[in-house]
Design goal:
The protein is mainly α. It contains 16 helices and 4 strands. The termini are close together.
Length: about 400
């Protein structure tokens, strides 16, 4: 009997019960709704900060300070105040809701502690970035947006280089994979792809999330492949090999650099639109600050965030293409389509697997599990002889 990719796809998806699919659908739709909710919360936060004049008063107190110090401190103050205003929503969206859906077991105290760490890092790095942005506004005038892509590229590259070394270890422990057949299999795959042995890690992702996940981060000598302890704990040996092959695909295919290039180009378009939309939004929020005045920072960042949100179909397409390419790399180089499919089905807990093409195109950062499993089964049909496929 000939191998049927569609029937094989349905067989893999049948591992999900109706209750599991309903829970996944509810969670995913809620995530979509949070996109709009986040914009509303950001708008309220912007309105409160502008109307209370907290940045105006701080700016007046810093009038005798140097320009660069004033910009840095105002940016830092904004980050702190906006975070405090939005904290109840953040707790709901990032912790309480995740807990209710069983996506995390992290205690609230640990969540808040890690959030505080993240805030400190964001204040330092974000304020430095904004200092650079306002320097562009000051020195290049109406053409500031044209120079923005270079600033964004430099910032992303700096974060990518710094993150695996200094930032990520603050939140998770990264260790070599323990001795055994899993380690031997993973390191063999890495060696075949030219990935150094000391660039493959296991990390305690279960501290923050129960999601089955792995990732590639960093660039150059800081690049690494990290597999969550959740994935290693739930997966079979073949599933680990298939997932590792996927992550090695991201590494070998240079997806990080493509992301830097595309996001930098997109940033130029976003800042161009921001320059034109800023006056209208400033009037609506009640701000009299010009776009190159740091007192207008709340409005500037709201507009940037709004435009980037509207551009999500572009960024989502970029990541979906990368995920498909990484799946193909795993299939071509590891050759375990059923194991890859079984691992993908585990991700359906937090990403509804049966979404339609429009929802996928607009809102999904990954192809749907259904489409990814079907691609794996098509590969199986094309690459395995009839005896193996049955």
């Amino acid at each position: 009997m000939a191998f049927d990719p569609q029937a094989a796809t349905e067989a893999h998806l049948s591992a999900l019960s109706a209750a599991e699919l309903a829970l996944s659908r509810s969670y995913t739709l809620g995530n979509h709704a949070l996109i709009i909710a986040g914009l509303i919360v950001a708008a309220v936060s912007t309105w409160i900060i502008v109307r209370t004049g907290v940045l105006d008063r701080a700016y007046a107190r810093l009038e005798k300070r140097g320009w660069a110090l004033r910009v840095f401190l105002i940016a830092a103050l904004f980050a702190l105040v906006s975070t405090l205003i939005e904290l109840p929503y953040s707790i709901y969206a990032d912790w309480w809701r995740e807990s209710q859906y069983g996506r995390t077991d992290q205690p609230l105290g640990d969540y808040l502690g890690q959030s505080a760490q993240g805030l400190i890092i964001s204040i330092i790095l974000g304020s430095l970035f904004l200092l650079g942005l306002y320097a562009l506004l000051r020195r290049t005038g109406q053409w500031w947006w044209a120079w923005s892509s270079g600033l964004v590229a430099a910032a992303i590259s700096f974060i990518l280089l710094l993150s695996p070394i200094l930032i990520e270890p603050l939140f998770n422990d990264y260790e070599p994979i323990p001795q055994g057949e899993v380690r031997d299999a993973v390191l063999a795959l890495a060696a075949d792809a030219g990935v150094p042995e000391d660039r493959v890690f296991i990390f305690d992702g279960s501290r923050q999330s129960n999601n089955f996940t792995a990732n590639v981060s960093g660039v150059g000598s800081s690049a690494r492949i990290a597999i969550s302890d959740v994935a290693l704990g739930e997966a079979s040996l073949d599933e680990v090999k298939a997932v590792t092959g996927h992550e090695i695909g991201h590494y070998v295919l240079g997806h990080v650099w493509r992301t830097v290039i595309v996001l930098s180009a997109l940033a130029m378009a976003v800042f161009w639109l921001t320059a034109r939309l800023y006056p209208w939004f400033a009037r609506r929020f009640g701000s009299s600050a010009a776009i190159d005045d740091v007192r207008g920072l709340p409005v500037l960042l709201f507009v940037v965030g709004l435009v980037f949100t509207l551009a999500q179909p572009v960024t989502n397409t970029l990541t979906r293409v990368g995920e498909r390419e990484a799946d193909a790399y795993s299939l071509d180089n590891v050759g375990l389509p059923d194991a890859l499919s079984a691992a993908l089905v585990k991700t359906a807990e937090y990403r509804y697997p049966l979404a339609g093409p429009v929802e996928e195109a607009l809102l999904y950062t990954h192809p749907t599990v259904q489409n990814r499993v079907r691609a794996a089964m098509d590969w199986k049909a094309a690459n395995m002889d009839e005896a193996e496929a049955e």
